[in-house]
Specification:
With 402 residues, the chain is α/β, with parallel strands linked by helices. The protein folds into three domains: 216 residues, Rossmann fold (3-Layer(aba) Sandwich); 69 residues, Tyrosyl-Transfer RNA Synthetase (Orthogonal Bundle); 76 residues, Roll (Structural Genomics Hypothetical 15.5 Kd Protein In mrcA-pckA Intergenic Region, Chain A), CATH 3.10.290.10. It has 17 helices and eleven strands. The strands form two sheets. The chain has a six-stranded mixed sheet, with helices on both faces. It has a five-stranded mixed sheet with strand order 7-11-10-8-9, with helices on one face. β2, α3 and β3 form a beta-alpha-beta unit. It is globular, with a radius of gyration of 26 Å. It starts with a helix and ends with a strand.
Length: 402
């Protein structure tokens, strides 16, 4: 039986942080149905990096849900704004990016984003297309459509203003430029993280000023990172990458705290955490990891990732697929040996020799099938040998020859 529009609204609302204004969603869906026109759902894309995390996947899943309902994803790449650097909330501007670097980042971005989005219902637009054509007169007119008082309602602006910290005019222009993007693509809905709510609401006002129907602002929660306390971020290192191998992704998800699981179920799967309440926490986590890997890759990849996890961490066997690391010939002594601390550094599993010493002292290093008990150890590399650090890290160390 076909769902009613009211049921579709409830489905879309699930997993959102905010809808502004909420009543607009039903109205826009009705108009879309009556006119036979898909809604244009805008999502801003920062071209600074091509690496996506499961934090990005939250908003992309919501966008895919809207695509599956027949609507169009409009990905607005901020190439113009990124080329001039964005000082917002920073003491210095970010490094200016060139067009070639942005282009390469976006190629990598598209490869990852289409693991979640439907390419047939996705439109990519670059804001240099319209922002690059604005004259100074156009910019003056744009700035006249929003007040300083309203701009100071943004949390970071108001805090800095009350503390007599400087705010450049350029910083005020960024929300206006993002808002003008909504005008240029005639957005019906704009999606973003909950931290972007202010900028998205500016878009509603600017659209009114250009005689457009204001966009509905839809935000999603910021996903908690693997540390269980702060929002997922590459800078903080508490992230799981969309581009990470299925086995690695599965393993990281299995290391999440039990307290974090309900949030991941709600934001990254179609399963209900409550329906699994009778299961042991570890089995719940396996279901979570399986569903997320399946959604990013495939069911086959998810099955393989789970098998590898169980093989390594439950059956205490080595992984089937171990990454090879080449040991440079100039690091190997004439007799074919190498100091164990040097070998550990080359593996990339330690950040310093002091960390390597500590791991050896704790019994956390094995070479081949033998534990390494002392730092005074120079193994002879007669061929490839498996180095294990802790329970999770394996590498096949391959000696190079001159």
């Amino acid at each position: 039986m076909e769902e009613s529009l009211e049921e579709v609204v409830e489905k879309i609302k699930h997993g959102t942080a905010d809808l502004t204004p909420e009543e607009d969603l039903l109205d826009k869906l009705k108009t879309s149905t009556e006119e036979g026109r898909p809604l244009r759902v805008k999502l801003g894309v920062d071209p600074s990096s091509s690496d996506l995390t499961l934090g990005h996947a939250v908003v992309l899943r919501k966008l895919r849900q809207l695509q599956d309902l027949g609507h169009l994803a409009v990905m607005v790449v901020g190439d113009f704004t990124r080329r001039i650097g964005d000082p917002s909330g920073r003491s210095t501007t970010r490094k200016i990016m060139g067009a070639k670097e942005i282009e390469q980042n976006m190629k990598d971005y598209e490869r990852q984003v289409f693991r979640i989005l439907d390419p047939e219902r996705t439109e990519f637009r670059y804001n240099s297309e319209w922002l690059g054509k604005l004259t100074f007169e156009d910019i003056i007119e744009l700035t006249s459509k929003y007040t300083v008082a309203r701009m100071l309602e943004r949390d970071d602006f108001s805090k800095r203003y009350s503390q007599n910290k400087p705010i450049s005019i350029l910083e005020f222009l960024y929300p206006l430029a993002q808002a003008y993007d909504s005008v240029a693509v005639d957005a019906d809905i704009e999606l973003g993280g909950s931290d972007q709510r202010f900028n998205l609401i500016v878009g509603r006002q600017i659209q009114r000023e250009f005689d457009q129907e204001p966009q509905l602002v839809m935000t999603v929660p910021l996903l908690t990172g693997t540390d269980g306390s702060r929002a997922m971020s590459q800078t903080r290192g508490n992230y799981i990458g969309v581009n990470e191998a299925p086995e690695k992704m599965f393993g990281k998800l299995m290391s999440l705290s039990d307290e974090t699981m309900p949030e991941y179920f709600e934001l990254l799967t179609d399963m209900s955490f409550e329906d699994l309440e009778d299961l042991h926490p570890k089995k719940k986590k396996k279901k979570l990891a399986f569903q997320i890997v399946k959604s990013i890759y495939s069911e086959v990849e998810a099955e393989h990732a789970q098998e590898e996890f169980e093989r390594v961490f439950e059956d205490n066997l080595k992984p089937k697929d171990i990454e090879e690391v080449h040991v440079p010939a100039d690091e190997i002594k004439d007799d074919g040996s190498i100091w164990i601390l040097n070998l550990l550094e080359i593996s990339g599993f330690v950040s310093s020799r002091s960390e390597a010493r500590r791991l050896i002292d704790q019994g956390g290093v094995r070479l081949g099938d033998e534990p390494v008990n002392t730092v005074d150890f120079d193994p002879v590399l007669e061929g490839p040998v498996v180095l294990q650090v802790g329970k999770k890290k394996f590498a096949r160390m391959v000696p190079e020859t001159d």
